[in-house]
Amino acid sequence: MSSTPGTLTSRESLNHILSRAVTLTNGPVSPCIEDDLRMLKQIRPRFIGRSAYVWITKPDDLAHLQLAAEWARRVHFEVDEDIVLQAAIFEAVYPDVEQIAIPREVFEVLGEEVETRRFRYDDMMGSVLRPDQGVAGGPWDGGNVPDLTSPETMRWFVYRGLRYLQAGYEAIHLGQMHLICGADRGFKQAVRLCSILRSLAATHARRGWVLLDAHGHGMAVDGTLLFDFTSRPMSARGLIEHRPQLALLKRGDAISGQHPGGWECEDGPVLVEVDNWCGYSLSPGSPEWEDPVKLSQIGRWGYDEISWLARLEDEPRREFLRYAHRWTRHTGAEWYFQPPVTRLLEHASFERNGVFVEFYRANASSTSCPEGFGDESAISAIWQEEDLKPEPSPIPQALTPSGVRVPEPVSVLGELQTYTGGIPGDASCPWSRLLHIGNGVFEQTFVLPLAGSFSFAIAVGGSQSDLTKQGGVAGGDPFTVTVKRPGDAVRIRFDYETRDVSIDVR
Question: Over the Cα atoms of the chain, what is R_g?
Answer without folding.
Answer: 24
